[in-house]
User: What shape does this take?
Amino acid sequence: MAIRTIREKGDPCLEKVSRPVTEFNARLHQLLDDMADTLAEAGGVGLAAPQVGILRRVCIVEDEQGEIIELINPEIIKTEGEQTGLEGCLSVPGKYGIVTRPMLVRVRAQDRFGTTFEVEDEELTARCFCHEIEHLDGHLYTEHCNILTDDELEQYIRENEKEFDE
Ligand code: CO
Assistant: This one.
């Protein structure tokens, strides 16, 4: 296991535009493996390379089956519908906001060997695709919402049950 340090809001790495990956080499594979370990340790459902201080267009998303999807140079190519729900970020620990995202998202990306593929998912995983890909352009979900106060969060959780970090 190699756990990398997760950068928190205020760290300049989280505000920069990441560069495309051009070499699908052992170094990239190490980064992806470390990101998966770091995500598992942190207990989230998604992590982007800039969150561990690497300004490259790489992110991982854990889908609802528990499978890790590795996205290199990802692009959203289709969205449908809308969902509104609670969203958090491992770089903004302990905080949550209510964000509206597409209900369905289709992504085109490369895998760790450089092969292009497409993946489509809904609900939490679709939300996560949007959230992680935004990290690659230096954006945080907090740009889309107000951070809930503890009271607002408690009330929201009482009324709804889904909660996650990414
Ligand atoms: Co995040």
Notes: Residues 26-42 form the longest helix (17 residues).
